[in-house]
Specification:
InterPro entries: HAD-like_sf, HAD-SF_hydro_IA, HAD_2, HAD_sf, PGP-like_dom2. It is built from ten helices and six strands, in the order βαααααβαβαβαβαβα. It is an alpha/beta fold. Helix 1 packs across helix 4.
């Protein structure tokens, strides 16, 4: 039985990863790092600054470019999405309402800053009100390390094996597997490679399809 749901945020709840790729590419070009391939930018989705620093020797100042992106992120977001709710991914409102109606607690576990997470939630155009927000900036190891998911489960008081993780990134799917949690991959910007394909347990088109999955899983529990 699924007793709790853990959401990633960027690219899963909100359509921010396409925005990130555009913003980061502009920042890299400004730093003269035009040669950074899209595959490197893609690999940074769902990870934090500690993993980004691994590219510093190959692409000097890439960490500085990312730091500036983070600092300017909210201004860029409000230019990109000028209307509240316009960044919401399909099915977000329906799934959140379903979880509330069924009294299934849910958390958000994201590598983003807590204040950014809270701002995105406020801009959704409807009350999301998660039971818990866990930010990767609060000392958790970066995905695919399972620490942030295990921390969320611990704070929710739910065994990891009874948690459902919703993810759109390779690092997130691998982190869910490493945490021994059930996971659903909901595609956004990532095209799964072989390692990711082997880690994907379930795949759904959008968040609305998670409702039927939960109904089926908990009906037979």
């Amino acid at each position: 039985m699924i007793k709790a749901v853990i959401f990633d945020m960027d690219g899963l709840m909100f359509d921010t990863e396409q925005m990130f790729k555009q913003q980061f590419r502009e920042k890299l070009n400004a730093y003269g790092l035009n040669a950074v391939p899209d595959t490197v930018i893609q690999s940074m989705i769902g990870c934090d600054s500690r993993r980004i620093a691994m590219y510093e020797n190959q692409y000097p100042t890439i960490s500085k470019a990312m730091e500036e992106c983070q600092q300017e992120r909210m201004d860029y977001f409000f230019r990109f999405f000028s209307v509240p709710g316009s960044a919401n991914k399909q099915g977000l409102k329906e799934l959140v309402q379903y979880l509330k109606n069924k009294n299934i607690p849910f958390a958000i576990a994201s590598s983003s800053y807590r204040e950014h997470i809270e701002t995105f939630l406020e801009y959704a155009g409807f009350p999301i009100e998660p039971a818990l927000i866990v930010s990767g900036k609060e000392g958790y190891a970066s995905k695919p390390d399972p620490a942030i998911f295990l921390g969320a489960a611990n704070k929710l008081g739910v065994d990891p094996s009874s948690c459902l993780v919703l993810e759109d990134s390779k690092n997130g799917i691998l982190a869910a597997k490493n945490a021994n949690m059930i996971s659903i991959f909901i595609p956004d910007q990532i095209v799964p490679d072989q390692e990711m394909k082997e880690a994907i347990q379930y795949e759904k088109k959008d968040l609305s399809e998670v409702i039927d999955f939960l109904e089926q899983e908990n009906e037979h529990a």
